Amino acid sequence: MKHGAGFRKTLVLTLACLALFFGGTFSSLAAETTLTVWVYSTGTQKEYQFVADLFEKQNPGIKVDVQLQSGGQPEVMQKLMLSIAAGTPPDVSWIEGSGVIEFAAQGLLMDVSRAVEGLKFTPADVVEMTYQGKMWAVPYHTAVRGLFKRADIFQEVGLNPNIDPADLDELYEWNKKLVKQNPDGSFSRGGIIPWTGNWGAPRLDLDFRRSVDRNRRQHHQADRHLSQKYRSFQMDPHLGSVLWLPQSGSIRGDRIPERHGGHERRIQQ
User: Taking phi first (over 0 means left), then psi (-120 to 50 degrees means alpha), and beta for anything else, what does residue 187 get?
Assistant: First the structure.
């Protein structure tokens, strides 16, 4: 994903927040001071480095060491938690938005409320970064997701297609109504397709006539990601299997085993 000037500005803000934590300005810091910044994505490393170089020019004597962390989001989050607990954390780090409150509740983050005072963020971002009335991280982008609905199927199961879910709990209940399973446990109709495009899965035509190829590696990556998320929230990991929109009443593809939590289910043609 490409990030523009807005990303660079907010990252500068994140680094600038450190000035307040160190007593107002960097001028009082030793000439050898180095700030360590963790990033997890190779796609953003160059942008972090660009901002770090700019920050160094504006703050002579301060070096910014941008360090790429290997692994996906869960691995980097775990590594960050362990480093903080061990007393060897980076000065600034990327953190997955949904983990901010969890980290703050354990005393693993620094209060940045004073640093961002007077700045405007979208309300949802502020809520996600706030715990006990204080902000614990600086949002750097806002994601917007849309839902495409099969109105006929919604009406079939007694759902109003003109109403959107109030929260994820309601969306979860929707999914249970929309899913259809065969007597052998295979799925004849999936309920929701979240996030497969993030892994490079092919675009589906809006009339849904195109077959979904379950052999594609990208689909399985999305499937594993969702299963991991559901388990982390103590939700049914089998929901991670339900990713595919109906294709003329059935899911097209080979018999492919999918494992979730030690169980195996097969998608049948």
Answer: beta
Q: Give the tens place of pLDDT for each residue, 86-107.
A: 999 999 998 888 889 888 998 8
Integer Cα distance of 102 and 21 in angstroms: 22
Q: Are residues 122 and 164 in the same domain?
A: no
Q: Are residues 219 and 255 in the same domain?
A: yes
Query: Do 119 and 13 form a contact (C-beta atoms < 8 A)?
Result: yes
Angle between helices 42-58 and 5-21 (to 10 degrees): 50
Residue 93 lies in domain: 5-135
Q: Are 156 and 117 part of one and the same domain? A: no
Q: How far is CA 200 from the centre of its chain?
A: 16
Structural domain contains residue 144: no
Per-residue pLDDT tens digits for 208-226: 334 444 445 555 555 565 5
CB 44 within 8 Å of CB 67? no
| Residue whose pair of structure tokens reads 């360090």 in the numeric block | 67
Domain count along the chain? 2
One-letter amino acid of 141: H
What are the tokens at 12? Answer: 């500068």
First vs last C-alpha separation in the chain: 34
Task: Give the CATH number for residue 49.
Answer: 3.40.190.10
Measured from the Cβ of residue 171, the count of other Cβ atoms closer than 10 Å reads 15
Q: What is the dihedral of CA 10, 11, 13, 18, to 10 degrees?
A: 160
The distance of Cα 64 from the centroid of its chain, to the nearest Å, equals 26
Q: How many CA atoms lie within 13 A of 73 on its CB side?
A: 11
Biggest alpha carbon distance in the chain? 71
